[in-house]
Each structure stands twice: as C-alpha cells, then as structure tokens.
Amino acid sequence: MNKTLRFLAVPTLALGALALSGAPAMAADESYQSTLGQINGSSASGTVTVDVTGNQAHAVLKVSGLAPTFMDAPYPHVQHIHGGAKGECPSPTADKDGDKVISTTEGAPFYGGIVTTLSTSGDTSAAAGLDLKVAGQGASYTIDRTFDLNAETKAALEAGTAVVVVHGLDPATLSAAGQAAKSDLAPTLPLAATSPALCGTLTVGQMSMPVGGADTGVAQSTTGMDAGTLALGGGLVLAAVAGGAYVVRRRNAGSAA
Fold it and tell me: Minimal CA–CA distance to 58: which of 41, 33, 37, 40?
C-alpha cells in the first residue's frame, strides 16, 4: 500500500525546501582547459584543467610518456602556467641558435614568463619554478592542486594568453649540439633538463560540475523518468501533479517510477 504525503507548492518549488540535508557545492566561475602538445620531439602527452572560483584556482594536470629517469633516479619535471606574451606554443622556427632544441628562453616570446608554478606541494609562485623538490617525478604523474590565484595568472587566463608548459627532455633524443649545451636557466644543468617537452594554451572550456557535492540523495540523472518526476533517496519520488502541487510518495519495489 502506497503511503502518500502531499506538499502544496508552486511549480518552481526548490528541492532545498524539502529540507534535504546539506548545501550544494558551488560551481566554478570559469573553467579553462588544454590538451598538451609535444615540443622538441618528446613522445609525451597530457591534459590540464584549471577551474577558477573567486580568488581560488583548482588545477589538475595529467601527463604521460615523459622522460622517465635522469641519473638513475625518477626524472624531475617542472611545469608552470606562463603568461603575458602571445599565448601560443612555439613552432620549430623558435630555435634561433640552430641546435635543434627550443630552449625555455627561445620559447618565451610565445608563451611568456612564469606566472604560476604547478608544483606538487608548497609554493606555487614563480620563485618555485626551478625547485626540483616539488617537481613531478618520472614518466607519468598527476598534479592536483588548489591555490590562491595571483593577479598575473588571472589576467593571463582572462586575456587568453595563459599557457601550460611541462619541462624536461630525454638528453639522448637531442642533437649532438643540444646534448652538449647547458641549460639557459640553470647552467649547472644540461639543456634537456629545463627545455619544454609539452605545451598547451588554456582556453575557456565547458563548465565543470561541482565536485564532492552534498550527500542529498538526489539522483543526478532522470533518464527513463517522466519530466515531472525526480528520484530522491530512500525510495521516494518527487512528482508534479495537477494544479501545480508536488507529491512525495514512496516507490513500490516493483514500480518503475
């Protein structure tokens, strides 16, 4: 026997009025994303999303196929959001010294300087740009960070000039001149260590759904249901009825709605 509870309400009744527990998570104000492309002959690939909510940014970077080791240890790859330039990834013509390697400084006119370091922990400012202790390790990894959005990064995102660059090449894949050269950023390191391997311009993407929302028991999909019904937790169904009223009824085990 169905037990029916009737709630008189206007058709625009909010689910929150049913005293469902918790508040919904806030969606991002804007979402940016990029599929990272190879530079300098790397065989790597990657994706990145940056969701901005107020003065906070949530970045998720996933990469694979990078150089796996360096001096018998996991290869430390640094990665950043660059900005303030053309908002582009460099083409092979950016190689001005003829060593067949686009160095970081040769690429800078295209993607600009560091505005945020996508470090694994701690500092996300440009000051951490070459800190190998907070670099990604090995061939494949994920960086998932929430950090304060500085003015330079915010401006680059809004202007469409924010570019994500992942650094670190396998020296064996470089030309003889490239293998012999020192880093243009840290002369104690080889050129391969700081040269870009992946690059992608961050563009406005589809808004991401709130992550980890409140446990309300409200189903996220209404596939197979009438447009006027919505499944709730505990076997209940919210259904619109004639006259603009809503009915919360308990669903029978054998019922399709």
Answer: 33
